[in-house]
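Example 332, ligand magnesium ion.
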Amino acid sequence: MKIALTYNLKKKDETKPADYFSEFDSEETINAISSALKKRGHTVDLVNVEQPNLFSHFRKNRVDMVFNIAEGKCGKFRESEIPAILDYLDIPYTGSNTFSLALALNKALTKKILKAENIPTPRFQVFIKGNEELDSNLKFPLIVKPNREGSAKGISVSNVVITKETLFSKIKEIQELYKQEVLVEEFIDGKELTVGILKNGKVTILPILEIDFSTCQKSGEYFYSWRMKEHQGNTEFGLVPTFHCPARLDKNTEELVKEVALKTHQALGCYDISRTDIRLSKDNVPYVLEINPLPGLNPTESNFPLMAYAAGMQYEDIIEAILMSASERRMN
Ligand SMILES: Nc1ncnc2c1ncn2[C@@H]1O[C@H](COP(=O)(O)OP(=O)(O)OP(=O)(O)O)[C@@H](O)[C@H]1O
Ligand SMILES: [Mg+2]
């Protein structure tokens, strides 16, 4: 197949905040996907979506399929930007569609759908003005997050608050930095789990990944904060979580967690691939935090490939599975 690989490239720019490019992909990831596709006999056109004249590029260089990992540039629907152009030009692409990508990027809207589907998700409130009255049903500790970011952008240990005063000052800070509404959620103390789903003919739920932060005490971090994600593996900082794949769960809990992830994937209408982040409370409730229809695909660092390797897949198998799933959809 003739494939275009669409991406946003991570850059170094000292004038921008440290997490500014966190959502974008490294050259390592782009090269890994490109080589995997070539190894399976496809030709690959690398398309940095920030190039000028992107629209005419697609028009002039027709491809059979776009392998899309582009996170988009800015705004409420950034992950949908490239799929929207491709929809207009009637070019098929891998992964979820314009609508599901926009929906999953909006954590609060996703949570409303989860609630309607009886999928557990932490109790929450959205702050638009920033000075709304706190819902009295919410119990501290609470965690404050930008509503439409990923890669744990804007999330640090100081976002977990136990007083109204620190809550409102954090809301203000996030609002000013990220220029968007703020999501406040009950903080779920428990296991950190993530579930990968791959569709290749049939649905494959990969072995659940458990991320144990008890080995990171020295760092002061105790959950998947931005610092933890950005510097994962850095022994000097003590940011070395322990990965268990499959997760250390009894059979019933494992089934329950997988079921909740699959229901989430289906409720959001995701295609081909997704990764659902879950906190399992001490009383065994799998609370869905969010779903990532464009999970990181770095071959050595990202969670999704780790889960696929545990299932016996090679990196090329993941890429080919995504591609085949998208091609089958096109034929139906
Ligand atoms: N309600 C919560 N209770 C406990 N921990 C939470 C909660 N919300 C977020 N966290 C912690 O913060 C991390 C990042 O949160 P979340 O997944 O919502 O952000 P994200 O930026 O979308 O992440 P990703 O990197 O997966 O795109 C979670 O993996 C978890 O460790
Ligand atoms: Mg997450």
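Summary: The mean pLDDT is 95.
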